[in-house]
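Suppose you are handed a protein chain with no further information: no name, no annotation, nothing but its sequence. What can you learn? This example shows the usual starting point.
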Amino acid sequence: MNRTPARLPADSASGFSGQWIDRSRPVSFRLNGRMYSGYAGDTVYSALAASGIISLGLHSRFPIGLAARSLPHIYPVEALSDVAAAFPMARTPITPGANYVTAPKPPIGGLRKLFQGGHTLGLALDGVRQIQPWRNATAAEHLGADVVIVGGGVAGMAAALAASRRNLSVILIEADQALRGHSGLFGAQEGEDSAEAAMLRLSQTVTTNHNIRVLLNSQAIAIRQGMVRVHSIETHGDGVTSTLLDIAAPHLVIATGSVERLPLFSGNRLPGVIGSLEAYELATRFGIWPGRSALFATSTNTSYRLAVKAREAGIAVNRVLDTRPNPASRYIEFSRAYGLVQVPSSYVEHARFTGSTLHVHFDSANQEPVTTSRLIVNGGWQANLDLWHMAGGKSHWNSKNHCLEVIGALEGIALAGSVAGYQTRTACIQSGADAIDLLFGSPRKQIEEVLIDPLYETPDAPLAIARTEASVPSYLDASTSYLARPQSVQNAADPLPAISEMAVALSLNDITAATCLGWIPVTMASTVAAERTPSPPLGLKTDLEPTVHVAPKTDVPTFLSGRYGEQTKVVKLFIADQRMVSSGSLIFRNSDSREADKAIGVVLRHNPEGPIALLTAEAFQAALPVSIRDQGSTIAARIESITD
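A reasonable first move is to predict its three-dimensional structure. Written in structure tokens, the prediction is:
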């Protein structure tokens, strides 16, 4: 019996053999009482995908596909109540004999019996709030450096090397288990070497540089001027530990890249539906491709490159749907040479899932539905501005590109790579050095962003939005928010109040998709994104505190400056049942008020003794009752005191 049916052969073409795994070292572990197998180098997520798990469980009665950004956290069975012991599945290497349970746990009884086939984790996802369990914990370790760089792609590595040339101490933070980034999916422009060669060359230079300390399997979860909070997974012997770090540095570089957007069609999160970047990285890093057939639906050119690579690796690629009427690119020409069928001006209207098969229906009556084991989608890209917003940076809606982009600057913080708006690998690498020049006031060199003429390389199209289909949900993003597209907005003339009724924990892609749908006015998109970006408290003083000005714990983020009037107060609220409320939850005078523009304040962060909030000065009065809107529900609270 093949215990890893989705694993491709070791000699697969196109680099789909799994560069990060060691097939000579099999590893077994348990999750929710079930044994799984993988190889050294696998994460818990990749091992599950290789084992044929294609679904997380049910949400709104429909199966949800396994995807990296919606995975639940896991705990060792011996530490179920220890917040500090929680692990993210996508960043946790598998180790021999490990025994984990998910949070939430699979239900016992009917739902579990429904999934006897073994292709799902069987989780009940309705009402689940998957907040990072370590968000409000105290950092266990404090580090310091001259420069901290978040993101180990080509831009982040170039920034680290540029800082090192100044003989500065550098800490480079990367969420994956190796320095690479995502350039591999995008290939090379004329005159560039291969993306794989460039990433390898940069990573080898960085890891041998004595000025640079690299933190792998480490994710920056909060940032402010002079400080970054990092959640790190450390491997030791045959086990792993979860550690929270506070890293102080007077100079910070954000090089977090972009996130892939989810096209909006009914069934867009069914098992077998996956983004092109995630599909590419599962194949190249871990040698995983569930099923042996694939259909592509895209609004960009990079999907054609992946389709060609999949064909070379022996995957039966049915066709490539493209929302653009006459798309052109070198990758499209390559795909035609491989005999791939291209269908321009075409959308996925809805998908159905039966057994392990997807039935994909199109917007055109001339196209018959297609049955496939995998639907690879790409709805374009959005710069990953979460940390930028946390730090108080501003953005605005680009109506031409239909996404949020950075405006303005922050003292002591610079951007590099695609998060700064650069598109080519050469420009991203140059932007890393430019970020260091900017931080240290040095003369800046011109960045060479040479783009192919649109006549030969068709730009990405806006986010694909199909007609609503009542029988299957259409989600705004592949994240833990599970925010589905309603059939209609309650108040079409003023859609923002309808958004305020939805889940508070919105992802950046939730917000940009809602803006594309017209539910959030383009003039409000950046404000909503900044307000909904949760940030743990970052104010602990250490001997490594940088010399730059650091805001005290009770200071208000700069993006909220003036939002609730010129005179505001930071207060502590009292909730009778001591429940946790999300950062960004709006506060109203009474439970009848729901419109965002009627809010009198916002929750800044969780506090065990009561949430800390920002209120209008006029609204402050000790013991005054207020109403918090969190996850679409109303929570009664009262104002307790002004914070110290």
